[in-house]
Amino acid sequence: MNKVSDSASMRSNPLTGTANGYMPGFGNDFETEALPGALPQGQNSPQKCNYGLYAEQLSGSPFTAPRGENERSWLYRIRPSVKHTGRFSRISVDGWKTAPHQPEHGLALGQYRWNPVPLPEAPTDFVAGIRTMTCAGDVNTQAGMSVHVYACNADMTDDYMMNADAELMLVPQLGRIEIFTELGRMTLAPREIAIVPRGMIFKVTLLDGEARGYVCENYGAKFTLPGRGPIGANCLANPRDFKTPVAAYEEKETPCRLIVKWCGSFNVTEIGHSPLDVVAWHGNYAPFKYDLTTFSPVGAILFDHPDPSIFTVLTAPSEVPGTANIDFVIFPERWLVAEHSFRPPWYHRNVMSEFMGNIYGSYDAKPEGFVPGGMSLHNCMLPHGPDSQAFEGASNVELKPHKLSETMAFMFETRFPQHLTEFAANEAPLQDDYATCWTGLDKKFDGTPGIK
Questions:
Q1: How far, in Å, CA of 266 to CA of 186, rounded?
Q2: Active site residues
Q3: Chain mean pLDDT for the chain
Q4: Residue 442 in 3-state DSSP?
């Protein structure tokens, strides 16, 4: 028996009459049911649940975490999750690496940039299509991250995954995907991102036949909204624009596999049914998606260029205040209006390590070479900034109000050095001539006072 159901069929938007598959808000306490009466009221664990369901708690934080940091959801499912595991066997997922991972690949220190990773020709699902680019920190101490690309052309039909190491941020660049989690389904397109919490079972299906994108595997504290400080209550990523899926379940009794990633190892167990069987749930430990075009950027309206931290969508904090385990930063469409100022990002060296990707369009500091689907890495304290073309253009252009249109790049920034994997050093389409983009930055100093 195969059946997929969700609470979208039970609820409709009274304004449009269309199915409402998401609940708005960041970090809210949600409740949702795919069948009427499946969600207990007034208590979490009744003696008997409706429909013969099992009650189970999924905890995303220690039980004794402060109230504002305590995360858990109560799930009401067809089978308890102990029925979704049997005897495990170790398997190899060759492309997926976990920190600490510092291979001897022979590529010297430098600033790096890559062209898009090609799409596969042989049938390849999401897990098999993962290729790790960088690793940072140590998964065993729950600090750091890894950056991956995915390129796939097949669905995870009867395969499911659970990552006990980290929460996952998915950033599509090509092709729409559906992420079906224990707590609901999310359709994700380029210009959107999604978070799958640590320990949550999911599978990925392709809505356009093939897909490519980026994945950030966060070993540390979960992503949250950054503090706005003097900005105040509004702008940047507003909480209402984050969408959590309504309850959905898959009732399927066919041979299935659950792949579990734990401390960098991959383990598989075979079961006779789908593990996505949560009929109702309530709580605040849940997946969500976010439309990057709803980000409300702020910037200089008179002179100079503020720090790129003003473009932070989500941050994964560390134990050091103001120093992130990961910052997720975007560079979206926006107006440039600063007077007598160099408008692109300035040249700089940074204690943080910066991995960038281009979702679409042209990035203003690198108008050539940094193509959609491409990537770059500028590690701790290595200098970087606009290429010579961008510098000359910005230094001499008439400073009228100018809108950067049809552009969306992003950055995964971490306090840890990011180590290249074998794939990034030897197999990914590395641009060997990347550093030549600064060759044209000639000496202009001649000792004469005045601005040249």
A1: 25
A2: 305
A3: 92
A4: coil
